[in-house]
Amino acid sequence: MIEVTHLTKIYGDHTAVDDLSFTIERGKIYGLLGPNGAGKSTTMNIVTGCLAATSGTVRVNGHDIYTDPLAAKRCIGYLPEIPPLYTDMTPYEFLTFVAEAKGVPYEEATRQIKEVIELTRLEEMQNRLIKNLSKGYRQRVGIAQAMLGNPDIIILDEPTVGLDPKQIIEIRDLIRMLGESKTVILSSHILAEISAVCDHVLIISHGKLVANDTIANLEGSVSEHNHLHISIRGELDAVTAVLANVEGIISCEQVPNNNGTLDLKLTVSKERDLRDDIFFAMAEHKIPVLSMELEELTLEDIFLSLTDGEGTVSDPDTPADGEEDATGEEEEEEKEEDAQ
Amino acid sequence: MIAILKREFKSYLHNVSGFIFIAFLLLFVGFFTAAQNLFGGSANFAYALYNVVIIFLLIVPILTMRAIAEEKHTRTDQLLYSLPIRMSSVVIGKYLAMICVFLIPMAVICLYPFLLSAFGIMHYASAYSAILGLFLLGSALIAICTFISSLTESQIIAAVISFGVLLAFYLMNGFAALIPSSPLASFFCMVILSALLSLLVYALTKNFNVAVVVATVCVVPLCAVYMLKASLFEGLFPALLSYLAVFDRFYTFVYGIFDMTAVIYYLSVIVFFLFLTVQVMEKKRWS
């Protein structure tokens, strides 16, 4: 459907999009994810022909966006970040204008306008001036506008920004419904939104594509380690000595608390569930384990690790590199002592 | 294009700007017709129109200021870029919408010679050719101000610059008369013009080498021609300035001459400035 190859956009001395290549397939909902200023909007603007790339090509259904822009644009419905609405018109007038500008024949246009107004639940507002509508309704007019002309691909740039929770849910339902018959690409910097709606995620950081996969695969591939939170009644030295004999623990860190228990946060390998091993090892030494909780890396962690490019350093729950090393060393020392 | 035209035309009638334009034009044409033809007892309607021209300096910027500047300001230009229509259709659609607004008072003005004929003998041919001249002048000024509107995001700035530029065009013949017609003066003016052109190129492209190339391409032939045949520069610059005197072409219509060159001049001004507007819109895509 959309083939993007080696797309680069340079503003002065700032590279907004850096050698981006990806393919969008028919009938899926794609999420374009990235922190603010990562190049999401720039990419979308280039794909929709609103902006010209410095180099690279975009083909939409086989039509090049530069050499055959009209045919390519007919396949795309686009809602930019700020819905481009003429505020001195009513939604109905505006949609009529857009349908006409997209070259939809009159009778077909009347039918389509009725349909999109129903889908976006604009019936009550269709004859009020757009300048008197709230942000949520304006956003819906923007989406309705993108749906006109029956394009195969619908591109929505941050469609839920500035909406209240109820409206967000409604817009998400609408996007899911659109995804049944069309290809939808939406951008967001909110992970919950992407994971709630999208089949496939493209993560962009500093203009580069850092991940292009399904959500399930991403969760599987990026995190090599899980975190295990355990709460034990016992002494630190005794516990670490026991843990040193359990295979698969990568590092161990004490979480201070005032409950009189020893709380540890273990970084464990993903291959095996270590909870059984730890339980039996502790039981052997008669150290009571009060609780054990396995924390799997969420999409949030994956996102942070990919967009920072330095592991999960900025994740507040994860120890900084230095601390990790320190606990690792301690453990090694302890192991040596054990051996002696 | 039709869709854009319809939308823009409706929008002018929803806004004040279209009505201000129509009302002021009719008010002044009516005022000068009353002064010249009714009270003055003149049978020449063209003289009334001759006085009307100055009001264009104020009302054309009011009509054109929002044409493209507002689209940029409210980001609705993104819609135009993403729609499957050519930028030239967008600009022509917008321009024709303004021409349609302009046609409303012009249609009313077309009735005046008939009304005046009740009081004496009217020369319909000269009256209507003057009306056509006024229409062409207005259309050319609208094209120029549309271009100015495409250069900025602010309607106020667009209006002020439009007013300044129109005033300069209005006074252009006076400027041209001030400049000595000696070859040396013209030569210096042309060199200064080349320098300004290369500065403009530098401002637009931020590329020093291109600006230098433009300057060289302009200045070297100028020097060569001046050395070989200085007499060619005799009165060249004032002549060049008089090409910019958009208003003066209208006066030939007022004197009862239907000047085909003036018609072609106005049409080329329109095409030229609409072309520039399209280029400015396309350039934004490449920035």
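Chain B has a mean pLDDT of 89.
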